[in-house]
Amino acid sequence: MLALLIVLLSVFGAGLIYLHRSGFPQRELFTVAIFGTIVLFLSRFNAAVRLELADRPFDGFQIYVWGLIVVLGLVRISKKRAQRRVFEVISILGGAYIVLALISGLVNEGVTGLFAAIQVISESVAPFVLAWILVDRNSRGAASQKENYSIYLMYLGIIIPSILIFSAIRPDVFSSVMGWSINAGDVGQGFMRGWSPIGSTITTGFLVLLAHGLSFHKYISHKNRIDGFIALLTACALIFTVSRSVVLSLIAFYLSYVLISKKRMRVFSITIVMVVAVIALAGFMVTQGYNFDRLMGTDDFSTYVRYSSAQASLDQVLSKPVLGGGPGLVYSEIRINNQDKIKYKTINGKLTVMEPHNGFLLIASEHGLLGLSVCCMLFWWMWLSYKREARVDSDLFRSLLFASCCFFLTNSDLVINSQFSVIYWFIMLAGLRSERQTERKK
C-alpha cells in the first residue's frame, strides 16, 4: 500500500512539474482540475448515480458531463465570445447527426426508439460538446494551444502511462489495494494488461498513443528532452496494453507521419531509435516471464468473433441501409444492461458480441448510411482543415486522424464510451482550433 502511494504521488508530482516547466499559467488550473476529474472518473462511480428515462439508463459519467456542459456553457455565454467558423461547420454536421438519429429511432420503434436515440445522443454528442467548451473556454490565441497540449500530456503522457506500466509489472500490488482479482487466464498466458482508471486498457492505449504522437511531434519540432522522454514513456506503455488494435494504429500513425512530414529523415531516424528502445524493453520483459505472443496471433477466438460480429453488422446495414435499425436498438444490451462487450447475441442468425468492435459499422447498422455519411464528412472536413489551414501542427494532426480511422475500424468506443469520447475530442478539437489561431496570428 505504501509503495503504491509513493508511486502515485511521484507520478502526479512529475505531472505538475511538467506543467510548471511548460510555463503553464496558474489561472488555467481550473481546466486542469476539470480535465483531471474526467480522466480519473472511475467506472464504479457510474453505478453510484444512475437515472432512467423510459427504461433507458443514464450513468453517473453522463450526468456529470451534462452538469459540466450546463455550468461551463453558461459561463461561456456570459462572456459573449464570438462564434468561430471552425466550429460552425461542425455544428451543422452535429445537428444533422442528431436529427437523423431521432428520425431513425422514431421510424424504427416509435416513442421507444425516440428515447433510445436520446440516450445514444447523450453518449456520443454530449462528450463532443463538453470537449468543445473546454478547448474554447480561453481565447488568448496561440497560447491556448500550448496549454491544451500540456494538459493532455500531463494526464495521458505522464500519469496514465506510468500507471499502465506499473500495474502491468506489479499487478499484485494494484490488486490488493484496488480490491479486484487478477485475471487468471491472463496470468496463465504470461501477460497482464496494465490497469487504467479510464476503463478499457485498449481504449486507454489509443488515448496514450495520441499523447505519444503529440510529444513525438514536439520533440521533432523543438528538440525538448522532456518531450522526448514523454514520447519514450508512452511508447513503452503501449506495449503493456497487449493490444493488436493499438499497435496497428501506432504503425498507421508512424507511416502517415513519415510520409507527410517535411523532416522525413529526422523523423525516420528518431522512429528507429524509439522502436529499438521499445523492443529492448519487451525483450527484457520476456526474460522475466512476460509474454507478448498475443500481439502476433491472428487465428484465435477473439479474431474469429470480431470477423463474425462484422458480418452480422454488415447484414444489418444491408437490411436497413438508409436509416439503420435505430440508435441504441440494434445493440441495446450494452446500453441498457451494461453488458460486457465480449458476451454474445445473434443478429439475423449470425453470432456477434454486444457491439461489433467497429465504430463505422456500429453507426451504419444503427443510424444507417445517412448517419455514417455525416460522421465520415466530419472526419473528412477535419482532414481538409488540418491540411488547408495548418502552419505548425498539420503533419501531426493529419497523422493522428489517420490513426484514429484505423483504430475505429476495430473499436466502437467513440460512440458508446462517453469518457473516451471527451478525452479524444479534447485533443482533436484543440488541434483544429490551434490551426486557425496560428493562421490568424501570421
Q: How are the elements arranged and paired?
A:
Layout: H1 2-21, H2 29-39, H3 44-48, E1 51-53, E2 56-58, H4 60-78, H5 85-124, H6 126-136, H7 142-169, H8 171-178, H9 184-188, H10 201-222, H11 225-239, H12 244-260, H13 264-287, H14 301-319, H15 333-336, E3 344-347, E4 350-353, H16 359-389, H17 394-408, H18 413-416, H19 418-441
Antiparallel strand pairs: 1-2, 3-4
Helix pairs in contact: 1-7, 2-7, 4-6, 5-6, 5-16, 5-19, 6-19, 7-8, 7-10, 7-11, 7-19, 10-11, 10-12, 10-17, 10-19, 11-13, 12-13, 12-17, 14-16, 16-17, 16-19, 17-19
Describe it for me?
This protein is mainly alpha-helical. It has one domain (2-182, 194-298, 360-441). The chain contains 19 helices and 4 strands. The strands form 2 sheets. It has a two-stranded antiparallel sheet. A two-stranded antiparallel sheet has the order 3-4. The longest helix has 40 residues, at 85-124. The chain starts with a helix and ends with a helix. The relative contact order is 0.13. Mean pLDDT is 79; it is low at 180-191 and 435-442.
Largest sheet: 2 strands, antiparallel
User: What's the total number of strands?
Assistant: 4
What is the domain tally?
A: 1
What is the mean predicted local confidence, pLDDT?
A: 79
Low-confidence stretches: 180-191, 435-442
Indicate the structural class: mainly alpha
The coarse overall form would be globular
Helical content stands at over 70%
- The ordered H/E elements are HHHEEHHHHHHHHHHHHEEHHHH
How many helices does DSSP assign?
19
Strand order of the largest sheet: 1-2
Compute the gyration radius: what is it?
Answer: 21 Å
How much β-strand is present in the residues?
under 5%
Alpha-carbon distance between the two ends: 53 Å
